[in-house]
């Protein structure tokens, strides 16, 4: 149960959300994105939110490129904008060779790349990432951080749930969720 969560997010910030397994990190993100309703409290959201769920929410029978088309049109991008964003993300996260592969046949890490890329489509100003890189190889992990820093420069606010100490060192702020309460660590 979440008991006392007070979190203000600003443009150009990367914020880490840490806490032990079962602390409620994923639940908090689902509330922020509007997938769950809190029993009490107020939530003010001014922008569209990009959301990368902890478990990839993908369609087994669609290809990577078809996912970009589906999710891109859902956020109002034109075909040209979708194609351009897809090419960039396929390159930045190094999975262009799988663009026409059916999702069902992708490795766990490649599915995670697509899950993350879809959250970033259309350059949302607020991005909530729930352990997006848990199955990334080392090179992709570094690429992820390059991408996150680029988005930060453009004023995007990124919240990342992570258990990695190297992540918390790269973030601007770190919050710990414990016993339902959110506390600022750094
Ligand atoms: N809608 C809900 N109503 C009540 N309890 C829930 C609901 N959703 C999740 N929970 C419970 O809340 C707790 C926190 O789950 P959550 O998945 O948010 O933890 P987490 O911090 O993300 O853990 P992990 O590090 O393992 O991903 C769990 O015990 C879960 O069963
Ligand atoms: Mg979780």
Automatic annotation (TrEMBL):
Lineage top rank: taxon: Bacteria
Pfam families per record: ABC_tran (PF00005)
Keywords: ATP-binding, Nucleotide-binding
PROSITE patterns: ABC_TRANSPORTER_2 (PS50893)
Protein name: ABC transporter domain-containing protein
SMART domains xrefs: AAA
Domain ABC transporter: 1-185
UniProt source species: Protofrankia coriariae
């Amino acid at each position: 149960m979440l008991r006392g969560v007070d979190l203000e997010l600003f443009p150009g910030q990367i914020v880490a959300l840490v806490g032990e397994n079962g602390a409620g990190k994923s639940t908090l993100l689902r509330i922020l994105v509007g997938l769950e309703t809190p029993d009490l409290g107020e939530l003010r959201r001014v922008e569209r939110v990009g959301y990368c769920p902890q478990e990839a929410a993908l369609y087994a029978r669609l290809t990577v490129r078809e996912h970009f088309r589906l999710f891109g049109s859902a956020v109002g991008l034109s075909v040209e904008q979708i194609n351009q964003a897809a090419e960039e993300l396929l390159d930045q996260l190094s999975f262009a060779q799988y663009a026409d592969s059916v999702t069902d046949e992708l490795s766990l890490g490649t599915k995670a790349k697509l899950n993350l890329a879809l959250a970033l489509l259309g350059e949302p100003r607020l991005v909530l990432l729930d352990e997006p890189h848990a199955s990334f190889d080392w090179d992709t992990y570094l690429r992820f951080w390059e991408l996150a820093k680029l988005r930060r420069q453009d004023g995007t606010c990124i919240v990342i749930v992570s258990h990695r100490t190297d992540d918390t060192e790269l973030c601007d702020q770190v919050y710990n969720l414990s016993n339902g309460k959110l506390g600022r660590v750094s």
